[in-house]
Amino acid sequence: MSKVHNFSAGPCILPQEVLKQASEAVINFNNLNLSLLEISHRSKDFIEVMENARNLVRELLNVPDNYEVLFLQGGASLGFLTAAYNFMKIDGSAAYLNTGTWANKALKEAKLLGGVLEVASSKDKNYNYIPKNYQIPGNADYLHITTNNTIFGTQLKKTPISRIPIIADMSSDIFSKKINVSDYDLIYAGAQKNMGPAGTTLYIVKKSALGKTGRTIPSMLDLEVHISKDSMFNTPPVYPIYVSMLTLQWLKNNGGVEWIEGINQQKADLLYNEIDNNPLFKGTAEVDSRSNMNATFVLTNDDLKDEFDSMWQAANISGIKGHRDVGGYRASMYNALPLESVQALVDVMKELAKKHS
Ligand SMILES: *Cc1c(COP(=O)(O)O)cnc(C)c1O
Question: What residues does pyridoxal 5'-phosphate bind to (predicted)?
Fold first, then answer.
């Protein structure tokens, strides 16, 4: 099988060795002669997986002891509602930074529970930048941010300075770079962008911040319930948690978040450099807001579309079609994507330019 350069925006590329180990566990897990898919989540073997996964999160992100790590279900999309339920007081309000589709969806869910103030929005330019110089209300219960905007290819370079707690949807850049967990009261992320397969959602929450809303919270949305049951209030998604554990182990074995941050920077530099220097392409996001995870770009001459598309397909490149809200192309460069895949894409872009120079 020839190698495919997989730039999928999500679910995304996973390390080959992880896929191999994961497939073996489907047949015979831990030499039990049983599949991971057919054993109890309360078995010693699975509890070890859960504990390992949690500990890897703690280690890789330096999670302080007063934070809890949970692996739940419902995707980041349920995280939008979960965040509001657990942090917005009964007569409270929340502040949202509107940086794109996902930020909007988060804001919409919070509106079901109370007052929501949009502190800033980049909608005026189809979300191609991260707003600056906005006021954060001191009386809101929290500020919600989306650290990486998967669809529009923008990323927050700094955590906002805020007197109120910050909640972050980090679905598409968690584990891609160092973060300071204590800047946030809650971090949540769907696994399928940078941590594992679809089906589990990571929550990292400051325990002392919970239980203060005065609300009755449905059990499945109540982070305190999940904490009290060690992420096993109901049957956890055993396989996505297992594969996430393997992926985090892969990250740790290779040098952890610091190591991958350097590689991710190299990949982004390589591609953006080509986008900026190749007359046939231009980036869609403002330079200082560009994402190291998802690079969005368009052809300067639409007539070359069919030619470019057949060239990258012939080079075994997959998954770079842009999202319908932006058009053009989007190259997602998540952790498991090797530098050589970015080089393969850059080579095709150079070849196109050479043909038309
Ligand atoms: C993909 C994505 C989501 C939605 O995640 P689901 O797990 O599909 O619910 C939310 N936020 C961001 C930033 C995303 O990239």
Answer: 76-77, 102, 150, 169, 192, 234-235
